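Support request, priority: normal
Reporter: lab tech (M.K.)
Component: structure prediction queue

Hi team, I submitted a job for BON domain-containing protein from Roseicyclus persicicus yesterday, and the status page still shows it as pending. I've pasted the exact input below so you can check whether something in the sequence is tripping the parser. The sequence length should be 215 residues. Please let me know if I need to resubmit or if it's stuck on your end.
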Amino acid sequence: MGDRELERDIRDELDLEPGVDATAVAIEVEDGVVTLTGRVPSLAVHDSLIGIVESLRDVRAIDDRVAVRPQPPEAVGDAELARRVRLLLGWIAGLPPEAVRVAVVQGRVTLEGTLGWRHQSDAAERAVRQLAGVTGLDNALRLTPAVAPDDVSARILRALQRDAELDASRIRVRVEGSRVILEGRVRYLGERQSAERAAWAVPGVTEVIDRLTIA
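Reply from support: The job had stalled in the queue. We restarted it manually and it finished. Here are the results:
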């Protein structure tokens, strides 16, 4: 697919998403690399926008220059936003809120601390990204090294093979302790992200290094 056709497909997909104002975002495509510029009112809308673009098969990379600018009444001060984040984290099942430190600067939230499982970090990030007033998020949560099963590589390969969107034969998996290294080639950006998710889903994994290339 050519760049012009890909840009048209992106605009068509954005027009179908009621939560995204496609007229507020400029789109440029060059060699499959999509550059997005403009402003959106919330991080949730931003994430919807990026998710739509990532889902298209011929997108090789995204240059995200979209700014999040909350409008009243969503815009709140940093101290109040930090209070809301802490309150929100306290409602997440299985997440020890005392293990997470919250800092907010100009609406941008930073999460720090140590957790035992990747799904806890993901749950905290998903919740905060949906909170009104958040303009950005830095997830600096670390995972405690867990005892990884001996067959981590085999488990990841089986997960890759189960994913209908992936060609597992093009992906190599190396395991160094609790760290997983993905190498090889994928066809598009969405496939690359599916491979990362499959690696993170295996118990005992505390770091995933993505060396996959899109070709």
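Residues 3-15 form the longest helix (13 residues). The chain has a mean pLDDT of 88. Let us know if anything else looks off. Ticket resolved.
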